[in-house]
Each structure stands twice: as structure tokens, then as C-alpha cells.
Amino acid sequence: MVPSKNLYRIERDSMGPVRVPKEAYYGAQTQRAVENFPVSGWRFGREFLYALGLIKYASAKTNFELGLLGKRMVKAIEQASQEVMEGRWDKQFVVDIFQTGSGTSTNMNGNEVIANRANEILGSKRGDYRPVHPNDHVNLGQSSNDVFPSAIHIASVTLLQQKFLPALRDLHKTLRDKGREFHSILKIGRTHLQDATPIRLGQEFGGYARQVELGIHRIQNAIKSLSELPLGGTAVGTGINTHPLFAKKVIAIVNKKTGYRFSEAVDHFEAQGAKDALVEMSGTLKTVAVSLIKIANDIRWLGSGPRCGIGEIHLQDTQPGSSIMPGKVNPVIPESLVQVCAQVIGNDSAITLAGLSGNFELNVMMPLIAYNLLQSIHLLANAVNHFSNRCIQGLKADRKRCEEMVEKSLALATALTPKIGYEKATRIAKKAYVQDKTIRQVVEEEGLFSKEELNLLLDPQSMIAPMKLTKKKKVSQRIK
Q1: CATH of 146-400, one of 3.40.50.2300, 3.40.30.10, 3.40.50.150, 1.20.200.10
Q2: Which of 271, 300, 366, 378 is most buried as measured by Cβ atoms within 10 A of its Cβ?
Q3: Is the pTM above the cut of 0.85?
Q4: Annotated catalytic sites, by residue?
Q5: pLDDT tens profile 84-113
Q6: Between 3.40.710.10, 2.40.128.710, 1.10.275.10, 1.20.1600.10, what CATH number should domain 5-140 receive?
């Protein structure tokens, strides 16, 4: 069935005529990309489109200041670009993620939408590209090869600063507060999933807080690399067809609009031929994801039960856990976070492969990098917020359970070693295990120490910090 002529308009590009939906703000090159890449249905999100619109806005403003575009035309381009930044034309960005590896199709999608909207503002029809042309005016001083990666950098930094870092800071504070709340509670430590010497529950949570704190530092350091923008390099890094002051002026406008400090790339050939800064950030997100998996899984284990598991902490009830077992409640919030982290680790693998796919002066897997990196930041920000607010904040400690498990642990035999040596302490631990008794019970039965001395030796408070130097000297003398 042939589409009605009322549903489309005919546009022409260097390859000939193209049917474009009549009401579309995009044009011929975008339509060709739609037809060439019906792959996933995935599209670029709000942050990326904001960054793309911002670059076009700043470029138009700069080209006017440099005397390259007239005021009337620039005002129209600025207004159209501002509307893209605000999300008014998001539905007009129709190109699939899996497209040309430079992102040219999406850059042209933006150029055409802005050009058609600017012409409409100036009283012209969509598709005429007069007086505003997508390439000659909207894309003036630019190339997809420097615009597209710059948009990734701007979008990533914005999302990290506005969403993910605040989420991590909130989680860090919540974990640190729990560490203080749980400071007085002694529990058994565990190594190799086996009993180890006692620790404070607060020390355990303090360790989690430090993991998150270090994650914040790692991201902040990686942001420094993302703050260099390839703008000004145009096609291959030489800056052909752009004014020598173009990049500096555009970036100054970007900085004013975003409130962040971007700068022109020190070396445009590195900035366009490689995507190491983006790979670095993805690797940093993976590191943070690994930390979060450790924390979330520990929370699941510590809260396992409620009667037949470790049960040293109680997670707040969030939803029924089983369609068949009445009353069952599962640690669904930590489970959600772990799944997000697994996705981020997978995204990093894809970004790694994309990062090493730069040949000579251009990487040709940039849309994949953009989509996966921004998705990772989005997912982590949301999942960390939920984990902090719907899991960690409501955690309660079971002091009685913690104390009972410390007393039952065979690892308390470690405290006897300075007095009786490793071999004798091992014998006592094995005897306690075989006879299903505590270390205290076995030592009392054998009469090795007075009750007062045994209470001092097996006091968990004495096992949660290094011994003082004077005590170490006395112990070494006893062992000799």
C-alpha cells in the first residue's frame, strides 16, 4: 500500500529524494537513518539530548560573536536549541542507538530538528531549510566527531554531579550513622564464611561507609578526565573549518549554563581518536558496583533468617516474599541493587570493547558507549537511593543474638593463645566443637584458669582492638 502524499513530504539530500513524515521536525538524513537502523528501539535519553541542544545553543551564540552568523538567524537557532534542551522535541529524536559509530545520524537528527524549528520561528516551512540550513548554520564550526563525544562528556558529568554523587553521599552518611548507632554491639567476625574473632557491628558498618566514601573519591577523580571536551577538533582533530576561538567560547557558555568546569582538550587527536576518559569512568562505576554488591550481599547474609540464619540484623519489611510460603519476607531491596550492579558490570564490558574500537583518528562505537555509560549512572543513582532509604535507614540490630553467637563461637580460643600457646588452644577448640560446648565451658571443666581470669581472657571487649605494647611484651615472655 502506497502511503498517502498527505502523510509525508519529499526532501532531498546528496543521495536523492527521501520521504519524510509531514509533521516531523527531522529531515532526510534522519529518515535515512531510521530506515537503515531499525535495530533495538532504544533512543538517547534526556541528559544526552540536553547536552546536544546545549552545544548547538552555545555554538550559535559563539558564531554570532565571531561574526559568522547573523543576529536574526542566531536568535531562531538559540530558541530552537533551548527547546531541545528543555525536552520539547524529544520525540523527534528517532534514530536507534545502534547506528553509525560516530553518532553522525544523531548529530544530524539534532541539526535538522533545530533547523526546521528555527525556520518555523522565522516563518518558513519545514523541509525548505531556508534561511537556516542544518549543516551550514546549525553545524557551523562543528563535526559529529567532536560534537557527539562532547555531548557524552557533558551528559555524564551532569548526571554524575546531580544524581549519582548525591546518592552516594547520602548512602555514606546513612552507613556511617548506622556504624555509630551499632558501636556498642559486639558480634562475631567471619572470614571464609567461618567464625572469626569478635568485632563491633559498628566497625562492620564503618567499613561499608568507607567503601562508599572511596567510591565517591574515585568518581570525582575520573570526572577530571571527562571535563576535557573534544570540541574544536572537527573531523579528525585538526580543527578544519572552525574558528580558532570557537571551542574556547563555546565551552565558556557551556560552563555558564551547567555550572561545571569543562575545558578544551589538551590534545584533540587523543580526545577524538580515543575514548579513554569514558572507559575510565565506566571502570570506576564498575569498581563502585563491586563495592555495592559486597555491601548488599553482606546485609542479606547478616539479616538471613529470621530464625534459621545469621539474623544479627533485621531488615524492614517491604513486601510479601513468596507466592506460596505465607509470612515470608525477602531482602528485595539489596537484591535489586545487586542486579543493577551486575548490569553495570556488563555495561562496562561493552564499553571496554567499544573503547578499543577506535581506528586512527576516530572511535566508531560512540553511541554504544554513550547509551551504556549513561544507563549505568542512571541505574546506580536510582538503586543506591532506594537501598539507602528503603533498606539501610530502617535496619535494626539484634543485640541479644549477636551476644549469644559471640559466646558460642570457637574463635574465642584465639584469646587463650598468648597464655597457653597455639597447640593447646587448638585442642580446646576442637574439644568444644566435638562435645558441643562453648570454649568457656571446656576451660572451666579443665580448670586452666580461675573464673576471674577466664572472664578477663574471654571478654569480647578485649578482642576488638590491638593489644597495648606493654601487654604484647608480657605475652611474648609467657610464650617463650
Answers
A1: 1.20.200.10
A2: 366
A3: yes
A4: 192, 322
A5: 999 999 999 999 999 999 999 999 999 999
A6: 1.10.275.10
Q: What is the CA radius of gyration of the chain?
A: 31
